[in-house]
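Q: Predict the assembly, please.
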Amino acid sequence: MAPLSVYRTMHLQPVGPAPVAARADAGLALPRPTARASHEREARLRDIVESHIDFVTRVLRNAGSPSADIDDDVQRTFIIAARKLEDVRPGAEKSFILRVALNVAAHARRTLARRREVAVEPTLEMADAAASPEQIADRKQARRMLDRILEGMHADLRTVFVLFEIEEMSMIEIAGALEIPQGTVASRLRRARAEFRACTDALRGISKSEKQP
Amino acid sequence: MSDPIRLFEGSDSPLERRLLGVARDEKSSPEARAKTLMALGITGSAALSATAVSAAAARASVAAAKTIWAKLALGLSVAGVVAVAPPVYRAWQRHQATAAPAAVVTMAPAAEIPDPTPVASGTSVGGVAPVAAATLARELAAVDAARTAVVHRQPRRALALLDAYARAFPAGTLGPEAEILRIDALAQGGHAVTARAHAEAFVRLHPSSVLAARARQYLAD
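A: Predicted assembly structure:
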């Protein structure tokens, strides 16, 4: 027997009933929350989505989720987070959803490695809607360069680097969210920065050599 | 322990600042946002505020829809599942001049539910992007109305709303979400065999989709 609906497991207002419910097999139905509790839960979920969806998208992208799967992985992250929403104290949502997103990205990286897929063009939105085709092409090239560098980093270094340099989280915040000592955060950031510098130096070297006859 | 200056602000390398700046500028797509709200069972249309759907996002939605439906058309032709394709899939295929007859359960006359308006009428001051953004919002409202009908166990109404959605948005961005709701509504209405057939087709087309888990429930028995 397959598990019941994800939505019922999440104790959310179901989008649709499971097949068993369609057969009026009420014995398998989980108790539904009261209307007020359901409303409050939905409001909290909505607020979490509104507040953190861009953050989750960037974390997934920079932690290794394939660009073609980003939309699915964003949904997956919030669905998993919603299952344990009652266990998350108010104010700790960002740290919690960050850990979920990192797990989803790690799973995506493993799946990608197995499938050996070729990455496709990123589909993420850029902040500047008025970018020219040249600027877009330039961004895509920059994005590909960054992807290459991040893919070469160890996951632990990559995570700290992304959270500090791209998400602008403080080292204290990162230590709390990842549940590691601040000294470890600082150490990983130093090593990640060194790798980043080495890679950008190498890229600059390639560019210069390509320009020279 | 104080934090060091971030490379984006303090690096002496323009390349480093450039790479990090590109990553910092990225945002979620409006499709991802709409689909996430939908997947969580959150009333989507009210949440999709005009400010959230930027002009840039709207342009991307058009490109994303083209990609999604191109993949669907290819998947349908390869998998040979057009016999259970929903109206929105068929409409997309007609659009590609490769349509085939399909059997679809329609439980309410079309006239009962007016079709949602696919695009804003009149002249668009803002051009194509705002129209596309408005279209996504209307799509979300249409699918959300169907979801509400399913939640209230009104399968006939839900199917009629989904048919109206398919007519109004033949290449809609939320086609997969609408198809899942159709499966739910069919099962609710006692059309277990048809619901299963739609679910099988969905899983074939979207095996790794988040929504595939919901379709697989109907294949368990």
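Residues 195 and 201 of chain A are 10 Å apart (CA to CA). Chain A is about 70% helix and 0% strand.
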